[in-house]
Amino acid sequence: MTVRSILDAKGHQVMSVAPGAQLSAAVKLLGERKIGAVLVMEQGRMEGILSERDIVRVLSERGAGALDEPVSAVMTRKVVSCRQSDTVSAIMEMMTTGKFRHLPVVEDGKVVGLISIGDIVKSRVQEYEREQEALRDYIKTIGLYRNKAKNVIALSEKLIADFGGAVPRTRAEIETLPGAGRKTANVVLNMAFGERTMAVDTHVFRVGNRTGLAPGKTPLEVELGLEKVIPTEFMLHAHHWLILHGRYTCLARGPRCEVCLINDLCRWPEKTV
Fold first, then answer.
1. Which of 70, 89, 143, 168 has its CA 20 to 30 A from that of 51?
2. What is the pTM of this model?
3. CATH of the domain at 264
4. Average pLDDT of 104-133?
């Protein structure tokens, strides 16, 4: 997203005052228009910018008498500007670094707009919402897709910001990503890096306990138990096989023991065959 898109949405109108105007008149204009800054213009040339910060500063220093002074005595003369082609992320960084809240937009020496930090934040929120909506359309078939879409976007941003765009290779680092817990970390380590890890969801937990393959009172106990008994050559994808067995055969209610290929090995006392 660029500055141009923000101006297209909010408009290119720029409020300005003359350098010789009284500060009180500028304060009145800010109040009437409900804006935080005005440009100080003289014959089409930008002389400075007057913001609420400038006004608060001079009133604290000189008192109410400063309202009778000309705007030129109060305004910020060194004005940083941007272009319509600048990206929103670049402008946000510029404002954060420079500690200012308003930025004139200049093209070919002419002022074509004024954007504020509020405009930037609003555009970022709208962009974020659009990204979430687009992602939700892709993953609507899975449960809790709205929250998962939010986490996918957030973890992607964190991967870029904290890990240089690369997926970390340790469980602890993966678990710092939004929406990623131990189970997700184990899936990533197993599928992406081929490590000997076991993701335990409700299906794997049930199968591990019913079959006696890895009995345990907690998911962690089942996880560690499965890692001990499953041969190394079968560890890759093993959690997927166990999930599918629990989802379609060893059901929580009405297990299909009659079609289970390992019913003769199963140690579950309540099996139906």
1. 89
2. 0.56
3. 1.10.1670.10
4. 86
